[in-house]
Specification:
Chain B: Its main location: membrane. The complex is a heterodimer. By secondary structure, chain A is α/β, with parallel strands linked by helices. Chain A is built from ten helices and 14 strands. Chain A folds into two domains: 29-113 and 237-275, 3-Layer(aba) Sandwich (D-Maltodextrin-Binding Protein, domain 2); 116-235, D-Maltodextrin-Binding Protein, domain 2 (3-Layer(aba) Sandwich). In chain A, 45% of the residues are buried. Chain B is mostly helical. Classes of the chains: A alpha/beta, B mainly alpha.
Chain lengths: 283, 253
C-alpha cells in the first residue's frame, strides 16, 4: 500500500469513528446549567450539592428523553454566554422567556409560570401596597396594572429597592417605575434577602416563589409579600428551558418531555413539594 | 464585532469611571497613611505592637479580598442591631463605605510591607551621616530616610496601586455600579460578553497606563543620580553632555 492511500484510509476511518461517536453521543448526556442560588428553584445545600425544583424536574425530563443529566453551576451573569459558548447544553435556572433573551437563545415551552412582587417589613407603610394577593398580567390586564402602579408610586417615592440585577426586573422597572425609587442591583436573591433583613434597603422586588420560600425562614418572620403579582409580557411569558438556537432537535425533545410532565402531573407535584403553591403552566 | 455597539458600550462604561476612581483614590490615600503607620509598628521595639502588626498583615494578606468585602458588608449587616446601638450603622449601612473600608484594610496590609521594605533598605551610613550633621530624628526622617525609602518602594508600590484599580471591580458584588458592575449589567441585557469586557478591559488599561506614567515621573524626580544616560559615557565628548544634563536637571530639584 502506498503512503498516500494509507493516509486516506486512516483519515477516512478516523472520520467514520468520530462521526459514529457523535451520532451516538448526541444528547445521551445533557449538561444543564443552573445558578444554584435561587431558592427553591435551584440552590446549593449544606453539603454543596445543587438541589431544588429544577434539579428534580431536570432528572425527570432527562429520564423521559432517555438521557443522563449533568448539572453545571454557573453564575447568573454569564449564564447565557456560557450556554452559547458550549459549557452546557440547556439552562434551567428560573429563566423567563423574554424578547430580549430570544435574540440570543431559543426556549422550550414553559414548564412553570412565575409572578413577581415586593417583599417588605410587616410594619412598613409599604405593606399597604395595592393589589396584594392578586396576579396581574402586563398584557391582558394592562389597564388595571396602570392603575395599581399609579397607587404604588407615592408610597415607593425615594425608597431604596433591592432586586437581582440583570434580570427581567431591570426591564420592568425601566418601563413602569423609572426614577421613582433608588435601585440597588444584587448578584443573587440571597444577597438582597440579607440586606432586607439588615435594614439596608426598604423593600425587595422578586419572584413570589422566592419570596415565599425566604419568608418561611424564622429570621424573616417580620416580612411579608406586598403588592400585586406581576407577570406576562416583559415580565416573562413563562419559565422555560434555555437552548442554543443551533439545537432545534434538543428543543423538540425538551418540548415533548415537558408536555408529558405537565400532563401526568409531575410538574404540579414538584411545584407543591418545593413551592407549596401551584406553578404549573396552562396546557 | 459591531463597532457602533462597541462605542455605545464604551460610553456607557465611562459613566462608571468616576466611582472607580473615587474608590481607588480614597482607599489608597487612606491605605498609604495607615500603611506607613503599620510599617513603623512592624519595626517597633515593643513586641506587642510588632505582633499586632504581624497578625494584621497575616490576616489581610492571607485572605481573598472578595471574602473580606463579603464579611464586612453582608457579615456585619447581620449585626445591624449592635451596630445601631453603638452608632456605627450609618457607616456600615452604605455599600460605598463598606467597599472603601474593605479596600483600605486590604491595601494597608500590602502597603505596610512595601514601606517596611523601603525603610529597611535605607543604607545605614546615610543615617549616620545625617546624625553627624546633627539632624534631629524628624529632620533625618524627612530629608534622608523617607525620600530614599519612598524611592526604593515606588516600583513595588506602583504595582499595589494597579492591583487596587483592578480590585475595585469586586465592589460590584456589594451593588456598586463601577466599571465592572456596569459591564455585568450590559452583558445581562445583550449577552454580548466579549464586546462588553473588551471595552471594560480597555478602560482599565487606560487607567493603569496613567498611573504607571505618574509613578514613573515621581521615580524620575526622586532619582536624579540615575538620570545620566549611559550612552553618553561612550561618547568622546560625554563629560560635556553630562555636565549639561546635570545643569538642566538641577533646576528641577
Amino acid at each position: 500500500m502506498k503512503f498516500s492511500s494509507m493516509l486516506k484510509v486512516v483519515v477516512a476511518s478516523t472520520m467514520l469513528i468520530a462521526g459514529a461517536a457523535q451520532a451516538e453521543n448526541k444528547w445521551e448526556t445533557i449538561r444543564i446549567g443552573t445558578e444554584g442560588a435561587y431558592k427553591p428553584w435551584n440552590f446549593t445545600d449544606a453539603s454543596g450539592t445543587v438541589i431544588g425544583f429544577e434539579i428534580d424536574l431536570a432528572n425527570s425530563l432527562c429520564a423521559r428523553m432517555n438521557a443522563k443529566c449533568e448539572i453545571v453551576a454557573q453564575d447568573w451573569d454569564g449564564i447565557i454566554p456560557a450556554l452559547n459558548g458550549g459549557k452546557y447544553d440547556a439552562i434551567m435556572a428560573g429563566m423567563n422567556i423574554t424578547d430580549n433573551r430570544l435574540k440570543a437563545i431559543d426556549f422550550s415551552r414553559p414548564y412553570a409560570i412565575s409572578t413577581a412582587s415586593f417583599g417588605v417589613p410587616k410594619d412598613s407603610p409599604l405593606a399597604a401596597l395595592a393589589g396584594t394577593g392578586k396576579n396581574l398580567n402586563l398584557e391582558s390586564d394592562a389597564e388595571e396594572v396602570k392603575k395599581v402602579i399609579e397607587e404604588w408610586k407615592p408610597l415607593l417615592e425615594g425608597k431604596t429597592i433591592g432586586f437581582q440585577g440583570g434580570t427581567i426586573i431591570d426591564e420592568f422597572f425601566e418601563a413602569y417605575l423609572k426614577d421613582v425609587f433608588v435601585l440597588r442591583g444584587y448578584k443573587t436573591t440571597e444577597q438582597h434577602d440579607l440586606d432586607l433583613a439588615a435594614g439596608r434597603i426598604d423593600a425587595i422586588f422578586a419572584a413570589q416563589a422566592a419570596l415565599t420560600s425566604t419568608f418561611k425562614r424564622p429570621e424573616f418572620s417580620d416580612f411579608v409579600i406586598a403588592g400585586a403579582g406581576i407577570y406576562g409580557d416583559i415580565m416573562g411569558r413563562g419559565i422555560a428551558v434555555g437552548l442554543r438556537k443551533t439545537d432545534p432537535d434538543l428543543k423538540a425533545k425538551f418540548d415533548e418531555a415537558i408536555q408529558s410532565a405537565v400532563e401526568d402531573g409531575t410538574i404540579e407535584q414538584l411545584s407543591q413539594k418545593w413551592f407549596g403553591l401551584s406553578m404549573t403552566p396552562k396546557q | 464585532m459591531d463597532m457602533s455597539y462597541m462605542v455605545d458600550v464604551f460610553l456607557e462604561l465611562l459613566s462608571g469611571v468616576p466611582l472607580t476612581i473615587q474608590l481607588v483614590a480614597t482607599s489608597t490615600a487612606a491605605g498609604m497613611i495607615l500603611g506607613l503607620l503599620l510599617a513603623f509598628m512592624r519595626m517597633s521595639s515593643s513586641a506587642a505592637v510588632r505582633l499586632f502588626a504581624q497578625t494584621y498583615i497575616f490576616v489581610f494578606r492571607g485572605t481573598p479580598l472578595l471574602v473580606q468585602i463579603f464579611l464586612i458588608y453582608y457579615g456585619l449587616g447581620q449585626f445591624h442591631h449592635t451596630l445601631q446601638d453603638i452608632g456605627l450603622w450609618w457607616f456600615f449601612r452604605e455599600p460605598y463605605w463598606c467597599a472603601i473600608l474593605a479596600l483600605t484594610l486590604n491595601t494597608t496590609a500590602y502597603t505596610g510591607e512595601i514601606f517596611r521594605g523601603g525603610l529597611q533598605s535605607v543604607p545605614f551610613p546615610m543615617i549616620e551621616a545625617g546624625r553627624a550633621f546633627g539632624m534631629s530624628r524628624f529632620v533625618l526622617f524627612r530629608r534622608i530616610v523617607f525620600p530614599i525609602a519612598l524611592r526604593q518602594a515606588l516600583p513595588a508600590y506602583s504595582n499595589e496601586i494597579i492591583l487596587m484599580i483592578k480590585a475595585t471591580s469586586l465592589a460590584s458584588i456589594v451593588t456598586m455600579m463601577e466599571i465592572t458592575g456596569l459591564a455585568y449589567k450590559l452583558i445581562s441585557e445583550t449577552f454580548r460578553a466579549v464586546e462588553v469586557f473588551v471595552c471594560a478591559a480597555a478602560i482599565y488599561l487606560v487607567l493603569t497606563f496613567v498611573i504607571t506614567r505618574v509613578v514613573q515621573g515621581l521615580e524620575w524626580w526622586l532619582s536624579p543620580h540615575l538620570r545620566r544616560d549611559p550612552k553618553w559615557m561612550m561618547r568622546r565628548d560625554g563629560d560635556r553632555h553630562y555636565a549639561k544634563s546635570q545643569a538642566a536637571s538641577s533646576g528641577g530639584l
